Amino acid sequence: MVFGIFRKMFGGGKAAGRDKDLPAVREAAGSGDDGAGGERRSRFENLERETRGRLEAQSHEMPGQAYFSQLQALQEEGAAFLPYAREILAQSEAARAALGLNAERPTGTLRFAAPSSFAQLHIMRLLPAFHAEYPDITLDLRLSDTRMDLIEGSFDLALRSAPLQDISLRGRKLGDDTRVLCAAPEYLARRGTPKEPQDLDGHDLLSWRSAAPRDLVAGSRRFTLDPARMTCRTILDDGTAQRIATLSGGGLSINSLWSIAHEIQAGRLVHVLQDWRLDDASVLWLIYPRSNVLTPKVRVFMDFLLARLTPAPWQL
User: Fold this and answer.
1) pLDDT by residue for the chain (316 residues), tens digit each?
2) Residue 253 bridge partners (DSSP)
3) Which domain holds residue 60?
């Protein structure tokens, strides 16, 4: 089956040839009852050896350079099939784990997407400890404050700040993404410190590119913070750049606590309008496609992050 799949990806073979391994897989997967685990493992390993041998034999049927050129030049149908092939490989890995074939330690490459600013502050410092514990896992990190499509990007796991509304995704909560207004002391000394939300009118705002009116609440009181009523001379789409601009006295900004809590604690930033909070339900989620099997490498990485980042170390 695996041999047939990769022949389809690289454009070779006919349908009959692509499917000829399917009965063997069905037999290996369905043979015996719950007491026949050893026999199933043996059949699975034999099938893997047979498939590997076929792939190696095919590689010797053509000159080396031509073979690698064919591998690199995916046809259109192969490129479209690639996410499904990755899922099949993930399911194979999960099947091996279920049969006890990967009992010693998780292995493989884990594709993880996360906001760059969060990763720089809270994840990168944890990686040496993770690799020391799981040396056979390679982390393929795609870091950007612009949201990436989990399905089209074929990611195993992603960190996202949003209500989990997409039914095609599953997730585990990492923590609340509390967001506050803040500014540098020198900016407030120059422009004055707002005491009430109405005092924000005319202040300089370091605005996020997708900024929209946001509601501030304090008990039963509510106020709509409208960026159009403030002066927006700088518009950003990167959290680290926004934090640096705020520290430099560029204006007020709305920041996640995970980004600026340490700056507030050190006195480099001031939490403005402390009695008010942004009325949103932003949550940090570790998410993965609902269709994906939760493989051992994904499970251990999720557990690793949750163990070290919950409860949230950035709360004031």
Assistant:
1) 444 444 444 444 444 444 454 445 445 444 444 455 566 556 656 665 666 566 556 555 555 555 555 555 545 555 555 555 555 665 666 556 555 455 568 999 999 999 999 999 999 999 999 999 999 999 999 999 887 777 667 789 999 987 656 555 688 999 989 889 999 999 999 999 999 999 999 999 998 877 788 899 999 999 999 888 899 989 998 999 999 999 999 999 999 999 999 999 999 999 999 999 888 778 899 998 776 678 899 999 999 999 999 999 998 8
2) 182, 206
3) 2-98
- Give me the number of domains the chain comprises: 3
Instruction: Examine the fold and report which residue of 43, 75, 98 is the final residue of a domain before the chain moves on.
Output: 98
HEC-encoded secondary structure of 252-280: EEEEEHHHHHHHHHCCCCEEECCCCEECC
Residues sharing a CB contact under 8 Å with residue 21, sequence separation 6 or more, in sequence order: 1, 2, 3, 4, 47, 51
CA-based nearest residue to 282, from 171, 174, 162: 162
Establish if 57 belongs to a structural domain.
yes
Whether 81 contacts 9, CB under 8 Å = yes
Do residues 252 and 131 share a domain?
no
